[in-house]
Amino acid sequence: MEEFRSVRGFHDIFGEELERFNAVRQTVRRILELYNFEEIILPVVEYAEVFQRSIGEATDIVQKEMFVFPDKKGRMLALRPEGTAGVVRAFIQNRMFALKPYTKLFYEGPMFRYERPQAGRYRQFHQIGGEVFGSLDPLVDAEVISIAHKVVKELKIEAVVEVNSIGCKVCRPAYREALVQYLEQVAGHLCEDCIDRKDRNPLRVLDCKVPTCKSAVKDAPKMVDFLCEECREHYQKLLEYLNIMGIPYVENPNLVRGLDYYTKTVFEVVSRELGITIIAGGRYDYLVEEMGGVPTPAVGFAVGVERVAMLVKELPQRQPLYMVIPLGEDTVSYALKVCELLREKGKRVELSYKRAGLKKQLELANKLKADYAVIVGEDEMREESVSIKNLHTGEQVKLSLKELFSHVL
């Protein structure tokens, strides 16, 4: 019979990889709660139009990477390629704008993009993201960036924060015109994708990783030179707040992000070790209105869980594992009682399913990486005690159940 294998770009997460994965999840969630974000659980499937309208028809995600399929009534659905659009849809649909002066939400879960699998990015990948609705204040942008900075700091990951402003509806048209004129002059040095982008989404050319394109746009016009007074003041305030908060950053005038909905602030956290973006976000002041809601400024970010997990070197220390070993069939019921008592005290416990002598049982305990063997024989059952052996030092003592709990607590 043919062996089943996972679909290309979809993979299983287990063992040490899962430990790193969960270390990232737990760290990000804890930090988000420190900033008073509330969780929202979003559907994995949305109407395709949600992403087409929000991300932009001209983006690579919409044109090439979305998993799109019809339902039984012929309506086009999509597996979510990112989280912000779904949060905005939920914010509008559930009239959250009427509940609070501003709203802070975070989400977690799998995203789907049909792209070439690469380091830390599969066709199913996971993100944790946060969104703040209702404030134009650059202080919000600074706090969102500070969350990203705290994540990498707490996980002891070497990374650099890059920031830029890409303007607004007032100042971006003049910049776009200047950029297109420049790109026409260097078109002979652009890759095929960027030849296409220069007309439909010229800002994306600035973010291309192809060496010839990077070289070609080296002297391209900079958005910061075209910012209107409001955008310039917003950007300068952001940098001022980052300095006050002690967050190191680098200004990157070619940073634009790949989604059409961004305005003003954009940022990325880039791994020094791998040179890849691991956290990214920015402001999107028009998106809520463009998706049918009341005009609402917003800013958000997302953490690429797999990419960050690749860089985690120090795993959280796990609780000691107690392996309860019944010696003989008659002691199994007493061993079960000991297991439950230990678990009620919050201990991590493995009950041996093997029926063998003590030597074989201890070999099993070592294979399962137990820290203590809790040995239950007929004498221990009669005395309501256990023999506990430290598998690291070899020390063994007999304790009553009361003494056991004082010993392990």
Automatic annotation (TrEMBL):
<feature type="binding site">
    <location>
        <position position="257"/>
    </location>
    <ligand>
        <name>L-histidine</name>
    </ligand>
</feature>
<dbReference type="InterPro" id="IPR006195">
    <property type="entry name" value="aa-tRNA-synth_II"/>
</dbReference>
<feature type="binding site">
    <location>
        <begin position="261"/>
        <end position="262"/>
    </location>
    <ligand>
        <name>L-histidine</name>
    </ligand>
</feature>
<dbReference type="InterPro" id="IPR033656">
    <property type="entry name" value="HisRS_anticodon"/>
</dbReference>
<dbReference type="InterPro" id="IPR041715">
    <property type="entry name" value="HisRS-like_core"/>
</dbReference>
<dbReference type="InterPro" id="IPR045864">
    <property type="entry name" value="aa-tRNA-synth_II/BPL/LPL"/>
</dbReference>
<feature type="domain" description="Aminoacyl-transfer RNA synthetases class-II family profile">
    <location>
        <begin position="1"/>
        <end position="326"/>
    </location>
</feature>
<dbReference type="InterPro" id="IPR015807">
    <property type="entry name" value="His-tRNA-ligase"/>
</dbReference>
<comment type="similarity">
    <text>Belongs to the class-II aminoacyl-tRNA synthetase family.</text>
</comment>
<keyword id="KW-0963">Cytoplasm</keyword>
<feature type="binding site">
    <location>
        <begin position="82"/>
        <end position="84"/>
    </location>
    <ligand>
        <name>L-histidine</name>
    </ligand>
</feature>
<dbReference type="GO" id="GO:0006427">
    <property type="term" value="P:histidyl-tRNA aminoacylation"/>
</dbReference>
<dbReference type="InterPro" id="IPR004516">
    <property type="entry name" value="HisRS/HisZ"/>
</dbReference>
<comment type="subunit">
    <text>Homodimer.</text>
</comment>
<keyword id="KW-0067">ATP-binding</keyword>
<dbReference type="GO" id="GO:0004821">
    <property type="term" value="F:histidine-tRNA ligase activity"/>
</dbReference>
<keyword id="KW-0547">Nucleotide-binding</keyword>
<dbReference type="InterPro" id="IPR004154">
    <property type="entry name" value="Anticodon-bd"/>
</dbReference>
<dbReference type="GO" id="GO:0005737">
    <property type="term" value="C:cytoplasm"/>
</dbReference>
<keyword id="KW-0436">Ligase</keyword>
<dbReference type="InterPro" id="IPR036621">
    <property type="entry name" value="Anticodon-bd_dom_sf"/>
</dbReference>
<feature type="binding site">
    <location>
        <position position="127"/>
    </location>
    <ligand>
        <name>L-histidine</name>
    </ligand>
</feature>
<dbReference type="GO" id="GO:0005524">
    <property type="term" value="F:ATP binding"/>
</dbReference>
<dbReference type="Pfam" id="PF13393">
    <property type="entry name" value="tRNA-synt_His"/>
</dbReference>
<protein>
    <recommendedName>
        <fullName>Histidine--tRNA ligase</fullName>
        <ecNumber>6.1.1.21</ecNumber>
    </recommendedName>
</protein>
<feature type="binding site">
    <location>
        <position position="131"/>
    </location>
    <ligand>
        <name>L-histidine</name>
    </ligand>
</feature>
<dbReference type="Pfam" id="PF03129">
    <property type="entry name" value="HGTP_anticodon"/>
</dbReference>
<keyword id="KW-0648">Protein biosynthesis</keyword>
<keyword id="KW-0030">Aminoacyl-tRNA synthetase</keyword>
<feature type="binding site">
    <location>
        <position position="113"/>
    </location>
    <ligand>
        <name>L-histidine</name>
    </ligand>
</feature>
